Amino acid sequence: MNYANRLKYGQSLAKYKNWTHTTYLRGLYTFSQNYVDKLCNRLVGSPDISGVFASIEKDRSDEHNHLHLLIASNQSMNRYKLSSLINFNSMGIGNVDKVHKKKEVAQYVCKHIGKDFSYHNIYTN
Q: pTM (2 decimals)?
């Protein structure tokens, strides 16, 4: 997927859900696709969350990666609430920010889609 296609994907993603929050997760180990699916399915299992978009991004060092999240929720979110929902250490969860510019945030989390190390998925309940 080239840059133009990633931009289009981000634009479409921005319209898909009412994305309200964004954050990232960092762990001691690399995020596998199965682990990302498990975490995100826990999130959408909550009645407070109607959707999640997840995208793995490689760190500058090839040994680690991190996970970008877009969250659609009708509740306020913070790292401690997310931590309890997904059973993930709150120290590994970045600031949970409100989404003000959906298109720009969606394009940012899509910036590595289609590259050989990337993985992304949309989860809904």
A: 0.88
Domains of the chain and CATH, by start: 3-124 (3.30.70.1910)
Nearest partner of 48 among 68, 67, 72, 70, judged by Cα: 72
Q: Please return the burial class of 56, using the count of CB atoms within 10 Å of its CB with bins 0-12, 13-18 and 19+.
A: buried
Among 50, 20, 54, residue whose Cα is nearest residue 37:
54
Distance CA 68, CA 55 (A): 5
Distance CA 21, CA 99 (A): 5
Residues 82-110 have pLDDT tens digits of 999 999 999 999 999 999 987 777 777 66
